[in-house]
Design a protein that fits this description.
heterotrimer; A mainly alpha; B mainly alpha; C alpha+beta; A: mainly alpha; B: mainly alpha; MetI-like fold
């Protein structure tokens, strides 16, 4: 059931932009309640909330997904490096631990301070915030596998580490890592939403769900849906995703 | 003699622990300082805005001392830190130290109230659902916690304002301090911000603690106590909680960095003049010294929490 | 008693004020004085006004280091300024007269006699000169006072200050002194509890919780009715709105049009709309330095293609004034003879087609809310005239570091504080002006402005400036489409609050009973 909701919400986000052609056009006065101004009323600039809802999900999900992808790639590579005991690996480990103690909100502040807001910054923020966790998770998951007999056998058979990682270790970690990616994705979405609320305009402009929630706040007494609908849309992705990830996590850690 | 030695050993361990804490905090701060310097936006360009010309930029950078090598400035900043002088803001020339201290005090009050809320809601929920894992109550509570976690703090804050302030008129929508006064002169302003943090935070805490309680509840000695006919509350206090406490405390410590993010957002939502608002302001006004000072506190607290978590872990093993 | 020398500018100010007062009333009709006072109501003595205003925890009360409106709000209520712009016209406050010599290079400022600071000491010419020097050498006002040569300035130690300028500036009052001219005791460097001679005194200030001001019973202009003011810093506009609807404050500045729409009937809250006189001018700057906007006809076509009313209705939610390509509407010196340019898509389409213009690049950088929306709407409107506009978005915090980013575009969605035309032109329009981002060249305009600055004869100066405005209107590089007023909301029984430089003045305010 959760899967259906998740697929539905994500599907809506990606199909939505195809038919929401008038999402940027003012159709009526601002903050009209549903009925007077379309299915979900209008937002502050008199735009149809339903149309904007349909148009505003894809970018947000894509940025979060992109950031998650980058973070997983970098994090897994670093995590595998961390399994070694060489000085280089220890150095990397030190940096990862250092990044771990910088809360993601602070990472965001520092990078927005220096780079300004926008999609590249947000991807970077979420990558920097996630990589330490992914790396440590990968290391923890990889160590038992590395000590297993077949890895030992492959090493004795003359395979180099890169080959062993790709052929023997990673396939065994696919489950846990996918589950971890789910966690990171939710974290990323959450962070973009917070950036939107703090007025950093994370995706440039105001047409994403996160910024819509914030922008609609001032009219919440006139048309609560301008803020509530995108908030629920975000929840419709994060809640089922979280539950599914939670189940997957339990399965792979048992 | 042996008591003295034990005390000495504890003191050494404690000193070592403190030293490690300071070292980690400092190292992270140096990284933040260097990253901040590498990035293109700076205070001079932010202040000049529309009036930025190359000459004006160079002049203002010189005035702010931004034209000197980064390592020199880092050294100066560290020296200032050691002597307790955090410098002045660039724009308003206000001393940063007292400004941050005042804001920290306000945030500490808010965090304390929120922490009490989190502890009550989180532990309560975890115990209620953990001792009867799989029951309908457990399922309802667990899903509620999950939903709470996934709801951004500002959404919770907004709903709280609409319900308790606009509709019912019980509590103020904006957390304004009395002019020249402190938080405790007007404690009602803390309720909604603390509630907003607590709802999200307690969901996370509950999900961290519930499995531990559930595991303990299913453990042999708790089972034995229950079979021996002890009252449920007695089983809970005597047999279940002691086993769950240490791992749960560790889990709670891991909550701290998430709560910091939530506090920033919630302070902003209620215009509460604490450390989080100050941090947002440091970014908006491009005040590197202020950002470093606020960031330093945030990092110090996070490192403290992480090391506390590690500590309770080593104690257990 | 006005001396013969002072009479001319005084009359000038009076005439200008009458003209703008009439204009102001006709244009907006919603000034503070028109707030409907319930019949039979009378102002009462005393009361506290809690003011929600943009501010933060880093503010100090030194105006040369102001980063928010709270600092100005406090300053303009505790200090006397020599001259202030209220409702678009300069109004002498502490100064009794401000008069130029024939060449407008030497100005004499005479201040009122018998004015005292809050500590009882008299306000002298030395204090005035020292204050002006302090302001004029600070980074944020330095460029404004650039033509004042402080080394040559003198004070007679009593009531007269003489300012020497390095070049003629007949517009000194509207372009320089009325922007900032607060007076504090000579030698003040500690602004933790500043002293002024204004209608209110600082009782306490702490960053984060704000400033408490109390009435100055000895004020030369008559003691204010209000007993106490609290300026409370709130950074977020929505929070300021919540504070006033939740009865936590009595006056909220800088509220948004959408915020205003959420005010419910019968809530006892009214809106103060000062009109164009207290507003920001929104415009599209055209890049005259390269094709196609180097051609005046194409500039004309662009100005005909945009729908100003739609822009004001959508971007400002209808709370604003339609622009007519010249900044300074509602302010002293604005040429009211200019014909309002109307939209003519067909004509624009013809010109664009004839000149082969089919695509344009526009830069939008959200320096203030609405800049990007304006650009998007403009792109829709240009499509109707057969031109495809591509919008490039840039981060506002670093935008002006590198003007080549701006110059790569044909159009720039921009806003500036609405100032008197003479002031705006020297800042943005003339050759080499700091805000002339595209490096546009207009010799004729630059000459006219320079001549006007040297002309002390009011009628002749006005003629020159009108000519310059006509030139900007017909041939310039700006398409000024609207003026967004600084809106405030307050409880309806509070009256008499005046607005200047986006902050409220409470000297004449009172609660009604």
């Amino acid at each position: 059931m959760w899967l259906i909701l998740l697929v539905g919400a994500v599907g809506f986000a990606f199909v939505g932009p195809l038919f929401a052609t008038g999402s940027e056009t003012a159709v009526a006065a601002g903050y009209l309640p549903p009925g007077e101004g379309g299915l979900l009323g209008t937002d502050g600039l008199g735009r149809d909330v339903w149309q904007r809802l349909a148009a505003g999900g894809a970018g947000l999900l894509l940025v979060a997904a992109l950031a998650t992808g980058v973070a997983m790639l970098v994090g897994i590579s670093l995590g595998l490096v961390l399994t070694s005991r060489r000085p280089l690996a220890r150095g990397v480990g030190f940096v990862v631990d250092l990044l771990l103690v910088v809360p993601s909100m602070l990472t965001m502040m520092v990078l927005v301070f220096g780079l300004g807001s926008g999609v590249p910054t947000m991807v970077l923020v979420m990558t920097v915030a996630s990589v330490p966790f992914v790396a440590r998770f990968t290391r923890a998951a990889a160590l038992p596998v590395l000590r297993s007999d077949y890895v030992l056998a492959a090493r004795l058979g003359g395979d180099g580490w890169p080959r062993v990682f790709v052929r023997d270790v990673l396939p065994n970690l696919a489950g846990p890592l996918l589950a971890d990616a789910g966690t990171r994705f939710i974290g990323a979405l959450y962070l973009v939403a917070a950036a939107g609320f703090l007025g950093f305009s994370p995706l440039g402009g105001d047409s994403d769900w996160a910024t819509m929630v914030q922008a609609g706040l001032e009219g919440i007494r006139l048309n609560p849906w301008a803020s509530l609908a995108p908030a629920l849309a975000i929840a419709a992705v994060t809640v089922p995703a979280n539950i599914l990830v939670d189940r997957a996590m339990r399965k792979v850690t048992q | 003699m042996s008591r003295f030695r034990r005390a000495a050993r504890t003191a050494t361990a404690f000193a070592g622990w403190l030293l490690g804490w300071a070292a980690w905090t400092l190292a992270a701060l140096v990284v933040v300082f260097l990253v901040l310097d590498l990035l293109p936006g700076d205070a001079a360009s932010a202040r000049l805005g529309q009036n930025a010309t190359p000459e004006a930029l160079a002049q203002l950078r010189a005035q702010y001392g931004l034209d000197r090598p980064v390592l020199v400035r880092l050294g100066e900043w560290l020296r200032g830190l050691a002597s307790g002088d955090l410098g002045n803001t660039l724009l308003s020339s206000a001393p940063i130290g007292p400004m941050v201290a005042t804001a920290l005090g306000r945030t500490a009050v808010l965090a304390a109230v929120a922490a009490i809320g989190i502890a009550i809601l989180g532990w309560g929920g975890a115990i209620l659902s953990g001792i009867r894992a799989g029951s309908p109550l457990d399922r309802v509570l667990s899903s509620t916690a999950l939903a709470a976690i996934c709801t951004p703090e500002f959404v919770v804050a907004t709903v709280a304002v609409v319900v308790f302030s606009s509709a019912l008129g019980w509590l103020p929508a904006v957390s304004l301090l009395p002019a020249g006064g402190g938080v405790l002169d007007r404690p009602q302003i803390l309720v909604l911000p603390a509630l907003s943090i607590a709802i999200v935070g307690s969901g996370t805490l509950m999900r961290l603690v519930r499995p531990i309680v559930a595991r303990e509840a299913a453990s042999a000695h708790v089972e034995a106590a229950r079979l021996a006919g002890l009252a449920p509350s007695r089983v809970l206090v005597r047999h279940l909680l002691p086993g769950a406490l240490a791992p749960a405390a560790q889990a709670s410590a891991m909550l701290v960095p998430y709560l910091i993010g939530g506090t920033v957002v919630v302070e902003r939502a209620f215009a509460y003049p604490g450390l989080g608002s100050l941090l947002v302001q440091a970014v908006a006004n491009r005040e590197p010294g202020l950002l470093m000072a606020c960031g330093g506190i945030v990092i110090a607290v996070t490192v403290f929490a992480y090391r506390l978590a590690d500590l309770s872990q080593t104690d257990r093993s | 008693m006005a001396s013969p020398l002072s009479r001319r500018p005084a009359r000038r100010l009076l005439a200008a004020s009458l003209a703008t007062a009439l204009l102001g009333l006709a244009a907006c009709g919603a000034g503070p004085d028109t707030t409907p006072a319930t019949t039979g109501a009378s102002p009462v003595e005393g009361g506290t006004v809690r003011v929600a205003i943009l501010g933060g925890q880093t503010d100090t009360l030194d105006v040369t280091k102001a980063s928010s409106f709270l600092v100005y709000g406090v300053a303009l209520n505790i200090y006397d300024s020599l001259v202030l712009v209220v409702d678009g016209k300069p109004e002498l406050q502490l100064a009794e007269s401000i008069t130029p010599d024939a060449g407008a290079t030497r100005w004499t400022i005479k201040i009122r006699d018998g004015v005292t600071f809050h500590d009882g000491s008299p306000v002298t010419a030395d204090d005035v000169l020292s204050s002006l020097k302090y302001l004029g050498t600070a980074p944020n006002y330095g460029s404004m006072f650039a033509d004042v040569d402080f080394d040559q300035a003198t004070s007679d130690g009593k009531l007269t200050v003489t300012l020497a300028l390095s070049k003629p500036r007949a517009d000194l009052i509207e372009s320089v002194l009325s922007q900032i001219s607060v007076v504090f005791p000579a030698g003040t460097t500690d602004f933790s509890k500043p002293i002024g001679s204004g209608p209110f005194k600082v009782e306490s200030y702490s960053a984060g919780t704000g400033a408490v001001l109390v009435r100055n019973d000895d004020y030369w202009g008559g003691a204010p009715k209000l007993e106490r003011l609290e300026f409370i810093p709130i950074a977020d506009a929505t929070a300021r709105m919540s504070a006033i609807t939740g009865d936590q404050v009595d006056y909220a500045t800088g509220v948004t049009p959408t915020g205003i729409e959420t005010i419910q009937e019968g809530s006892g809250i009214v809106v103060q709309d000062p009109g164009a006189a207290e507003s920001s001018a929104f415009e599209f700057m055209m890049n005259q330095a390269k094709a196609p906007f180097d051609d005046p006809e194409v500039r004309e076509a662009f100005r005909l293609a945009i729908d100003r009313e739609a822009l004001v209705n959508v971007v400002f939610r209808g709370k604003g004034t339609v622009g007519n390509d010249v900044v300074g509407q509602g302010m002293v010196g604005y040429d009211d003879a200019l014909k309002q340019r109307e939209r003519d898509v067909e004509k624009a389409k013809q010109i664009f087609a004839a000149k082969g213009v089919t695509t344009l690049d526009a830069l939008a950088s959200e320096m203030t809310p609405g800049i990007t929306d304006a650009a998007k709407l403009m792109a829709q409107q240009l499509k109707e005239a057969g031109v495809e506009v591509t919008i490039h978005e840039a981060d506002p915090t670093t935008l002006f570091n590198d003007l080549s980013v701006v110059r790569a575009n044909d159009l720039f969605s921009f806003y500036a504080i609405n100032r008197a035309f003479a002031a705006h032109a020297t800042m943005f329009l003339t050759d080499g002006a700091p805000g002339n981002y595209f490096g546009s060249q207009d010799e004729e305009l630059t000459t006219l402005i320079t001549q006007a600055q040297a002309q002390t004869d009011e009628a002749k100066r006005s003629e020159l400036l009108n000519k310059a405005q006509e030139l900007v209107w017909s041939n310039g590089t700006d398409a000024v489409w609207g003026f967004q007023p600084v809106l405030a909301a307050h409880t309806e029984n509070l009256t008499g609050v005046r607005m200047t430089m986006s902050v409220p003045l409470f000297a004449q305010a009172a609660y009604q009973q």
